[in-house]
Every structure is written in structure tokens, then in C-alpha cells.
């Protein structure tokens, strides 16, 4: 992973430096190897910011806060170099309003924790009512729903959210030998599901605006709908029946 990032980093840096030299040769910008560093280090900030954000999206560590800050800071510095705005390294203090934005996102993070707590609480209530193991969440929740712990038990799910992301890794799960209904409904967000190749499944996915990718079958745009069913779904004992409905966002179901 590090080697791949390093190669990408070197490649992007060379591309940007080469492009800048071309622009300098035709008189669009003032760029030479003596002042190259003032262009390069903002690009470094942007690249590292993007990496941290992509790592967060891929659930491989990363940080939205540090990633977005370095991306914004590097972009503003680069805009200054191209004389689109005036912004120097010492103007970093002008980005203090980002603290307000990050505090706002921290409340979303707290909502995420409450959402997970509600799922656990609803599970306890369902056990009390002899409906063991059902997962349920409130439609008024905001935040991420993650099911990726080793050997987590799959039971009926009814996940709802006003806004947030859903990540379900069935390759790490214990899946009982029965048909298990999974429902996800959200106004805005992304759904990312990993399903082992040896598990039969059916996915009925809809988005009002966005994209759908189910095992390589794709649909994108407005009012998109895609129904996918594995060959042996009807006769299988162990199978997942997944219903996904988003108003805006993306749905991705991958077999692993």
C-alpha cells in the first residue's frame, strides 16, 4: 500500500511539475526550477489531504478533519501561486471558521454513536419480545452504520437514516442457514456492501438521484432501479434478501 501511494505521489508530482513548466514556457505562469518549491509544497498538502480522506472512505484509517484541512489549505496556497486569490502560508489563521464546521461534524459523530447505541438497545428490546437478534434504527438518526466486526451475527435488519453511510461486510460475518431480510432506507448517503461469493443473495436497489453498482451491473442518473438475483437464490437455504432505497447517494454491492 505504501509503495503504491509513493509511486502515485511521485507520478502526480512529475505530472504537475511538467504541466507547470509547459505553462511557463508559453507565458501563462512564471515558473522555473528555482521557484518550483513554492508550487510543489502546496501540491504536497493537497495530495496528503486527499490520501487521508480516501483512506477514511475506504475504511483504512485516515481522517476527515486533517484530510480536508490540508486539502483546503494546499488548494488556497496553489490558487495564490496562480494569482487567482491572495493567500500565503501565514494566512492559515484565516481558516479558523473550519473549527465551527468540524464541531458540527463532531455532533454528527455523536449522533453516530447514539445510533449504534440505539441499535444495541433495540436488539435488547427485540430479545425481550422474543424476536431475537433483529437490528433496527431510527429514521431520525444521522451518521454511519458499520457492521464489520469479526464474526458478527447476521439477523434481520431494518436500518433507517436521514443522512449517513452504511457499511456491511458479510465476509466477516456469521450467516445463519435461513433467508435473512436486510432493509436500508435513507434520504442521503452511501451504501457499501461486501458479500462472499459462496452466499446467494438478491438485491432490489433504488435511488432517486445517484448511482447503483451491483456485482458489476451499473445504473446512474435520476430514478434508477436495479434488481439483481444470483443464479441459485431461490433454492438456497442460506441467503440474503436485500432491499435498498436512497433518495440521493450511491449503492455499491461487491462480491468478494
UniProtKB/TrEMBL annotation:
Residues 142-253 form the Cell wall-active antibiotics response LiaF-like C-terminal domain. The chain crosses the membrane at residues 34-54, 61-79, 91-110. InterPro entries: Cell_wall_LiaF, LiaF-like_C, LiaF_C, LiaF_TM. Keywords: Membrane, Transmembrane, Transmembrane helix. Residues 9-114 form the LiaF transmembrane domain. This is Lia operon protein LiaF. It comes from Virgibacillus litoralis. The lineage of its organism: Bacteria, Bacillati, Bacillota, Bacilli, Bacillales.
